[in-house]
Specification:
seven-stranded mixed sheet; alpha/beta; binds tryptophan
Amino acid sequence: MTTNNEEMVVTPWEVRGKIDYDKLTKEFGTQPITPELLEQIRKHTGQLHPQLERRIFFSHRDLDWILQRYEMGEKFVLYTGRGPSGPVTLGHIVPWIFTKYLQDKFGAKLYFQLTDDEKFLYHDEFSISEPQRWAYENSLDLIALGFDHRLTKIILDTKSIGVLYNLAIQIAKRMTYSTVRAVFGFQDSTNIGMLFYPAIQAVPAFLESYLTGKNVPCLIPAAIDQDPYWRVTRDVAPKLGYYKPAQIHCRFVPGLGRGGKMSASMPETAIFTVDSPQVAQKKILSAFTGGRATVEEQRRLGANPDICSVFAYDYFLFMDEKEIGNLRYNCLGGNIMCGECKLDLAERVMKFLAKHQEKREKAKDRFEEFLFNPKDI
Ligand code: TRP
């Protein structure tokens, strides 16, 4: 269980404590998303996605540069991914929804990497078939979100390695042990698969350039915990004659407990896309809120939406500007009680899940259609 006073830890394998996003931006050396940059995006997208407006995507590297190139007629590719170690949660799909918006607005191709190798190497208890099975399961969630199959290529590492390997060894040759040890905190006891793996995660950032023989800019939308990978990837880019990949970073979606991000390893506080609507409802009804001890007190003093996990779900996924503004007002003013708010969210989540699960069923025979095939280039 995480508490709000716990020290902040953000690595590709662990996120805990109270997250201070300003501090992360400084520590990682990334740029905040400014109003000017939002205007530059709006020029191309018409409207801004709520995730931008609300700064759920809050920091970047070279996004202004990507837009400049785009304005000069140079298209970029998108790259994101997932480590398939379990079922997909509503938290995971937040950046995927945003990635689809970028694909739609910019007509951009997407490489989506499923890192079954990474999860096999990291989890002692995994046999290789486990992450492979999750990779297939997780890809159904991606496909269900409506990505365009002509523009979306799923890379499944163990299956696509024949195409990745040439580029992976070129990258690996230019990444030193001392760099990856320092960046990722590897120890003497770390298995050597993990030491090589950062080269594999770097590959999709250069894949389009490598396969087409001309430099293509790449933009990576992802939660900020993946940033160490992009730092080492950006380091080797000029050594290989490629553009450095740009990034746009999002916040972590909190779990239904007190503090901490939604995590598949705490199933009672995570909503899975495959949860039955009844199970999801039950989890939401026992969620942590920012409410007061008694109804009387809450009517008098109001509640606190900023620490409330129910409010967070509406904020990250379900409400538009007007609705969220109203909810905030009513929550602070003590006009709405937590039970009511939970029931409302549960209804929205159950509706979403029913639709999503229908689309997910239909995705089952479309996996091959999305799987990366170098002949498509
Ligand atoms: N390492 C990521 C994870 O464990 C998976 C991943 C691979 C990824 N490539 C990516 C995530 C690109 C975001 C963007 O989840």
